[in-house]
């Protein structure tokens, strides 16, 4: 049970929305535009989670840690943004239990924030089109702070915008980046096991709790 919670911070990709089907389409359009082979959804699923810059680099190098050519990266960035903006919510879906969870927390008057490594200019239209934008008092995107999750910066900025103490914010996420950011910011953290954690089991990162569905979360907040 989580006590003394004044706000809840939600990760986006892999926690609220299964967005990889559309991200993979944008990645493969980028690959086609650059005369590179398609990478496919399965690989993209393991590459998402550290922001667009890392995703593009991983796609260009077809690897998790490869070094991409700077000139190729410069060509790829605006193309990827354009391709993803064109299909940000075609095949993406809300995970089961998300709408009920957000509704229940909002009804209790808890302020909610979305804290994602995705650029805000891409996250905002996704939240709107998938129909959950109204639940969030603020959106912190990947470019809003100098360092991405697992750095604490984005969570601290969300808490500041909500006017709450960071240690009284519950972080909810799907990846080790979310757990790390929560630990670095001093926030309690709940995790879902179904998202994008680079192919690893989220339990390895020792969140305070793992919930099979976000529908279970409201009952865990005192
Ligand atoms: O764009 C990404 O890397 C994914 O972002 P998120 O899981 O932090 O929402
Ligand atoms: Mg995520």
Strand order of the largest sheet: 5-4-1-6-7-8
**CATH architectural name of the largest domain:** 3-Layer(aba) Sandwich
Q: What compounds are bound to the protein?
A: 2-phosphoglycolic acid, magnesium ion
Radius of gyration of CA atoms, rounded to a whole number = 17 Å
Tally of distinct domains: 2
Shape: globular
Order of helices and strands: EEHHHHEHEHEHEHEE
Q: Which topology of the largest domain does CATH recognise?
A: Rossmann fold
Organism: Plasticicumulans acidivorans
Function: Specifically catalyzes the dephosphorylation of 2-phosphoglycolate. Is involved in the dissimilation of the intracellular 2-phosphoglycolate formed during the DNA repair of 3'-phosphoglycolate ends, a major class of DNA lesions induced by oxidative stress.
Catalytic activity: 2-phosphoglycolate + H2O = glycolate + phosphate
Keywords: Carbohydrate metabolism, Hydrolase, Magnesium, Metal-binding
How is this structure best described in words?
- By secondary structure, the chain is α/β, with parallel strands linked by helices.
- The protein folds into 2 domains: 7-18 and 92-220, Rossmann fold (3-Layer(aba) Sandwich); 20-86, DNA polymerase, domain 1 (Orthogonal Bundle).
- It contains 8 helices and 8 strands; from the N terminus they run ββααααβαβαβαβαββ.
- It has helices spanning 20-33, 41-47, 51-61, 70-86, 98-107, 120-130, 153-162, 176-185; strands at residues 7-10, 17-18, 93-94, 112-115, 138-140, 169-173, 189-191, 209-210.
- The strands form 2 sheets. A 6-stranded parallel β-sheet has the order 5-4-1-6-7-8, with helices on both faces. A two-stranded antiparallel ribbon has the order 2-3.
- Strand 6, helix 8 and strand 7 (189-191) form a beta-alpha-beta unit.
- Helix 1 (20-33) crosses helix 4 and helix 3 packs across helix 4.
- The model has no long low-confidence stretch (mean pLDDT 97).
- It binds 2-phosphoglycolic acid and magnesium ion.
- 2-phosphoglycolic acid binds at residues 11-14, 48-52, 55, 116-118.
- Residues 11-14, 48-52, 55, 116-118 line the site of 2-phosphoglycolic acid.
